[in-house]
């Protein structure tokens, strides 16, 4: 095959419970992931230049967020493709094209999604035939959120978030995402979380999954789910970006069933009662302070999948 295109979804964290800082610099998490219908696409193609001087992997980025994504070896998709080739023990060449719709540094795992898509696309392009469980292992080494972008649907992640168990859900849920100008660094948000806890003398204890949230997912109860949404990183994100409080308040005033900062932010997520309600919230948020744009989506949706 000369080219493979993979579509991969964004995520929202329905619950993000953050334990104390570990010796390895990570935190133990209970992370309830939910894949939503905002997608990037990654195409892996046979390279046009196969000379010895040509780099084995190249990457180009298109779309609204293209200028904010590294087009070099720092790109997670490039790192994922290289890790895949290393696991397979073979030489590799590919030209990667990333079409961005997922916000960059927005708390929706856009870079991780691209890495997952690159794993699937290059596995097909290179004819490796590695099974999903092998791709999941490679994904976990690339980044904590990469396995879920492969997995999709709704799942609880433990450890750093990379150990996944699928969660039962009924029906689909309607979402609005308020996009902010600029991003937030995930390490900086975790660092601020640790600082705030130390300042307050708070011991977070061992993170556990929320039973009300899991029950709401099983029953497809959007009202109960809205009440159960939680994110331990939200105070840190608000500390670093106070304007997010205005965005969250605006969504609540528009009748959102629940609201929270998505992951490390700065994207804010709002749960709506219906497709029509989501459109109304999105329209109302467009003039909210700190909100650059508002988009609607549904979830859960599948993880990374070949579309062409």
UniProtKB/TrEMBL annotation:
GO molecular function list: 4-(cytidine 5'-diphospho)-2-C-methyl-D-erythritol kinase activity; ATP binding
Alphabetical UniProt keywords: ATP-binding, Isoprene biosynthesis, Kinase, Nucleotide-binding, Transferase
Active site residues of this protein: 11, 145
UniProt keyword Translocase present: no
Signal peptide extent: none
Function summary: Catalyzes the phosphorylation of the position 2 hydroxy group of 4-diphosphocytidyl-2C-methyl-D-erythritol.
Family: Belongs to the GHMP kinase family. IspE subfamily.
Protein name: 4-diphosphocytidyl-2-C-methyl-D-erythritol kinase
């Amino acid at each position: 095959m000369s080219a493979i295109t993979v579509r991969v979804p964004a995520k929202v964290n329905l619950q993000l419970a953050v334990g104390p800082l570990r010796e390895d610099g990570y935190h133990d998490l209970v992370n309830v992931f939910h894949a939503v219908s905002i997608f990037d696409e990654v195409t892996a193609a046979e390279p046009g230049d196969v000379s010895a001087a040509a780099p084995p992997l190249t990457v180009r980025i298109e779309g609204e967020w293209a200028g904010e994504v590294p087009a070099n070896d720092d790109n997670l998709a490039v790192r994922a493709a290289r890790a895949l080739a290393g696991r397979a023990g073979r030489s590799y060449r590919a030209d990667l094209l990333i079409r961005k719709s997922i916000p960059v540094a927005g708390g929706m795992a856009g870079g991780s999604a691209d890495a997952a898509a690159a794993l699937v696309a290059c596995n097909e392009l290179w004819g490796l035939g590695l099974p999903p469980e092998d791709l999941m292992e490679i994904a976990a080494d690339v980044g904590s959120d990469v396995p879920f972008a492969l997995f999709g649907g709704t799942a609880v992640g433990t450890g750093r978030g990379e150990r996944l168990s699928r969660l039962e859900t009924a029906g689909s849920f309607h979402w609005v995402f308020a996009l902010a100008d600029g991003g937030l660094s995930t390490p900086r948000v975790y660092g601020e979380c640790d600082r705030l806890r130390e300042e307050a003398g708070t011991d977070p204890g061992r993170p556990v999954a929320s039973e009300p949230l899991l029950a709401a997912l099983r029953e497809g109860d959007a009202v109960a789910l809205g009440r159960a949404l939680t994110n331990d990183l939200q105070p840190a994100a608000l500390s670093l970006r106070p304007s997010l409080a205005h965005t969250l308040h605006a969504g609540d005033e528009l009748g959102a069933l629940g609201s929270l900062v998505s992951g490390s932010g700065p994207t804010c997520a709002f749960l709506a009662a219906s497709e029509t309600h989501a459109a109304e919230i999105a329209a109302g948020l467009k003039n909210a302070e700190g909100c650059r744009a508002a988009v609607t989506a549904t979830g859960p949706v599948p993880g990374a999948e070949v579309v062409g």
